[in-house]
Specification:
Blueprint (H helix, E strand, L loop, with lengths): L14 E3 L6 E3 L9 H14 L1 E4 L6 H11 L18 E5 L22 E10 L7 E5 H6 L3 H7 L3 E5 L2 H6 L8 E5 L1 E3 L6 E3 L6 E4 L4 H17 L4 E4 L6 E5 L3 E5 L8 E9 L6
Parallel strand pairs: 2-3
Antiparallel strand pairs: 1-2, 3-13, 4-15, 5-13, 5-15, 6-12, 6-14, 7-8, 7-11, 9-10
Bound molecules: succinic acid (SIN).
Length: 277
């Protein structure tokens, strides 16, 4: 069992950046020991770095919910069934009988909500012997790497996001799907930076465009995000690893390459604000 020293300020603890623009692993930190100020500092770091990783964070669901509440008001998933007594916890599980694994496509969490999620905190309990990594992509960098001409086209556009995916994953009826319209480029409320905000799981169309125009533009953007390896980073999970990411400026993709092995984790997510340009 690793030993930890208590830190008064998060800025004092060792950290390893995974790439210049995205992903930082914090060392010698126990989430359960952090006070309000340190959690605020952590949340700010997540918004700057997109995703923060911590290892050896053994905790109960109760404790994970408590840490989640310190990060913000907790979100309840519109379709998934929560474990008994924990309405805000999303179970992410794949086993030998699975025909799909949640999150195995590029996306930002539940962008079909009117106030889509801000931070997500995922803790894995069981991990496969190899594989099962998660990959994140910076939407700050995805936007910045486009030409100023393309950025000029995107700024001011609005996209429709729907929960249609919940029909196949959770059997949700079309009349119950959440639907929302959000700017294609949003300004992050903490960092003030602009980020691309369309994703292949939830974004169905660009408002005001003909279907072929919308498909062509979204197809280009989804490819740009999927193939942009220079603004991605990848995390190799261990039992009790935690990743906290900011859905307002990153997308993620859970890699389902471990079937028929199993993987189990629990996610809590905070409610964000309505996205604005
Ligand atoms: C998700 O939160 O969408 C899934 C992430 C993962 O299982 O790695």
């Amino acid at each position: 069992m690793a030993s930890y020293r208590r830190v008064n300020a998060l800025s004092a603890c060792p950290r390893v950046d995974y790439s210049p623009g995205l992903g930082t692993e914090l060392r010698d930190v126990q989430l359960l020991e952090l006070g309000d100020e340190e959690v605020d500092e952590l949340a700010e770091l997540v918004s700057e770095r997109g995703v923060v990783f911590l290892r050896d964070q053994s905790m109960t669901l109760d404790q994970q919910v408590r840490v989640g509440r310190m990060l913000g008001e907790l979100h309840t998933h519109p379709a998934a069934q929560a474990p008994e007594g924990f309405p805000e916890v999303l179970v992410l599980e794949a086993d030998p009988g699975s025909t799909r694994a949640a999150g195995a496509w590029w996306h930002t969490d539940v962008s079909c909500d009117q106030r889509p999620p801000a931070l997500s905190m995922l803790r894995l309990c069981d991990v496969p012997s190899s594989g099962g990594d998660t990959v994140w992509s910076s939407m700050y960098a995805a936007l910045d790497s486009l030409s100023s001409t393309m950025q000029g086209i995107l700024v001011g556009l609005t996209a429709r996001h729907t929960g249609a995916v919940y029909q196949s994953t959770y059997g949700m009826d079309a009349s119950e799907w959440p639907v929302a319209e959000h700017p294609v480029v949003r300004t992050h409320p903490v960092t003030g930076r602009r980020a691309l905000y369309v994703n292949q799981v939830f974004t169905s169309e660009i408002v005001g465009m003909r279907p072929r125009e919308s498909e062509a533009l979204l197809g280009f953007l989804f490819d740009h995000i999927a193939y942009g390896v220079e603004f991605q980073t990848r995390f190799r999970w261990e039992p009790d690893s935690v990743a906290i990411w900011d859905n307002r400026c990153v997308q993620h993709h859970a890699v389902w390459d471990y079937h028929p092995e199993s993987r189990l984790g629990y996610r809590v997510t905070t409610v964000g604000e309505r996205p604005v340009l």
